[in-house]
Please model this.
Amino acid sequence: MTTRVYCVLAALFAANVNGAFVLNGSPRFTNGSTALGMTKLNFGGKIVDAKPGTPIKNACAKAGFKPKYSCKKGDCGSCTISVGGSRMKACVGKVPPEPRLKSLQEKGLAVK
Model:
C-alpha cells in the first residue's frame, strides 16, 4: 500500500517539475500572471517589463525616463521617484517584486 502511494506522489512530482498546475486542461502558473515573474512598470502610459531585483535606473532608461541624480550613492535624494505609491531612490533602488493584486499586475506599477 505505501509503495503505491509513493509511486503516485513521484508521478505527480515529475509532472509538476516546471511549477505549472494543470486544471481542466489549462496550465495555471503559481507566480502570478506572467510565467517569467516580470514586474510591469507604467511610466505615464508606457509599460516596461523588468525583472525584480534589477536596478530601477535600468528600467527607467529602458522606458526613456531619466531621473535627475548627482551623487549616484543615494545620499542626496535628488533621484527620488515614486513606484507604486512608495518612494525610492533611483540610483540605488531595485525593481520591486510583482504585486499580488490582479489590477496592478495588468496595469503595472505607476512610476512618477
